[in-house]
Amino acid sequence: MDYVIAALVGCFVALGIYMLLSRSLIRMLLGIIVLGNGVNLLIFTAGRLTREIAPIVPRGLDTPAGAIANPLPQALILTAIVIGFAMFCFLLVLAYRTYQALDADNTDTMRVAEPEHAPNPPLSY
Amino acid sequence: MAAENLPTAMIETVTRVADWVIVLPMALALMGAALLLIVRKSAGLGFVLALLVVTGIIACETSLLMRVAEFGPQSMTMGKWLPPFGISFTADLFGASFALAASVVTLIVLVYAEADRPPEVAGDGFYALVLLLLAGVTGSFLTGDLFNLYVWFEVMLISSFGLMVIGGTPMQLDAAVKYGFLNFLATTIFLLSLGLLYGLLGTLNMADILRVAPLANPAAMVGVAALMLLAFGMKAAAFPVNTWLPASYHAPPAAISALMAGLLTKVGIYALLRTLVVVLPATRDVLEPVLVLVAVATLVLAPLGAIAETNLRRAMGFVVIGGIGAVLAGIAMPSLGGVGGAGMYIFHAMLTMTALYLVAGMIEKQTGETDSRRMGGLYGTSAPLSILFLVFMFGAAGVPPLLGFWPKLLLIEAGLDQGDAVGGLLVVALLVNAVLTIIAGSRLWAHIFWRADFTPEAPPAAPPGGLHYLAIGVLAVLIVAAGLWPNPLFEVVRVGAGDMIDSARYTDAFGLAEVTP
């Protein structure tokens, strides 16, 4: 099972990077979210996939009765999902605002901060 | 298994009040940010509150630094779980002194921003975002857990996004797109490396990693470290992945770009120093050729960018990148002098790069222009500005009486002590960097301040006021004084670098639980 999920992670990351190489902001956004989900899946797989029960200690015991699923990757992923979602939302709104303000969703035509054909530096002094 | 057979995993004793100084800076900054968000509409109150909170943070960090200097690295673990179960905050001399420098810089930038911000922008949440940024920076310096480091990185990132777009001019939006995408990509790569590291070791606590890392597959560990090098290199704007910095740092108002230039890339390079030198030293040795190449390329190419650039603050951006190259050179030399020089350079860069951006902002204010080709003859109207600009520029290059000289001296000494071709290459690159930075700086200076026959196109703008000069003056005094009396700094660096190379004192501070790996 681990190998299947690992291959899936590879597909996610490859797809994410491919879409990030695009010049269209919306494709890049999709690439970021696919890459982020690939990474989340990777953490989940890194914690080892098991068919064990939820990590809850039964009443009256100090330790779980049998083998349990590893709870730590779940906590890590939960944090990563929340953060990734917040960042994605910000970038989505930013892309929309940029489209409104600059009339561009292509990074090649976004040259306000870095003017194209900048004049040569002065040669005096 | 009965409970009494288990090793203890909880801290039974009550935490001493004095130990709280490790977490208080972050707690104060986060609570202050929340408070400032509530009162953001009331003009005047925000500035006073932010000053008070940052002063409180400075007080906490001063006491933390003194405790660390006296008793060695200090640690505190959340939730009373022993590490590696609880998340640790651990301060050694480097972390504590960088955190202190970061909050001092923030205080100065707050004063500058108060003078700089037009009254009609009140209520945009600037102060809350600055405190949130400070929380992220301080947390990154003081954390002892790699996943926690990721979280602080994201805190820092989201607040810098906010600061980048405050005002919402088209140029800021354009810059924020590039800054946002590339930095978020960098933290995603960092998260990727964390996932792999967790899969290999089953822990992300720094001291625990040190304990179990020798048992893991060394090839896989090098892969993880290479991903971290890429991620932190992107955050720090090291050479092949540096293009986002000159594309974005000049867009927001001068105070904000000064804060970013002073703090953000330094956190990235500090994280690289911490992970490669302290946490994964075995992989650092494997990656050394890459580190040397990146360091040399960054050192030599960045100031060339500064020479070719005419936009004043974009040129400063290239100077910032050049400084990152110097720290990388230190990471590439694992000796006491190399790591000590890298640490001292981070300290110097926090002060000097902030000062450079602030003085650039004042020049822009005086002339009403952002491009050095349309400035000129400023010496006649503002001689103090010309002296300040020259002092900070020479400081960035590493000219003797200033703070920037000492870290470069340490680095060059370390390179010569190494006595091989690699050390020599790094020394040459450091010297070339210094010369090129001086050329770039003096060229900009000549264009902006000389050219007496220059007639400006824009009408003369409002000259910078007293508060501007107060803020920049304090920074100038700090830089010159630290350059003239560097002994305390050398002492901090000697002990701090010693703890980085021999991490026994650092890991002992964690008080790890007795668990079998």
Describe this structure in words.
The complex is a heterodimer of chains A (125) and B (517). Chain A is mainly alpha-helical. Helix content of chain A is 58%, strand content 0%. Chain A contains three helices and no strands. Chain A is elongated, with a radius of gyration of 22 Å. Chain B is globular. By secondary structure, chain B is mainly alpha-helical. The model of chain B has no long low-confidence stretch (mean pLDDT 89). The interface between A and B is large, with 45 and 50 residues.
In terms of topology, how is this protein built?
The complex is a heterodimer of chains A (125) and B (517).
Chain A: H1 2-20, H2 25-46, H3 71-102
Helix pairs in contact in A: 1-2, 2-3
Chain B: H1 24-38, H2 45-71, E1 74-77, E2 88-91, H3 93-116, H4 126-142, H5 146-165, H6 170-201, H7 206-212, H8 218-236, H9 244-248, H10 254-279, H11 281-308, H12 312-332, H13 336-367, H14 378-381, H15 383-397, H16 405-418, H17 421-449, H18 466-484, H19 487-501, H20 504-510
Antiparallel strand pairs in B: 1-2
Keywords:
heterodimer, A: 125 residues, mainly alpha, Helix Hairpins, 58% helix, B: 517 residues, two-stranded antiparallel sheet, 20 helices, 2 strands, 2% strand
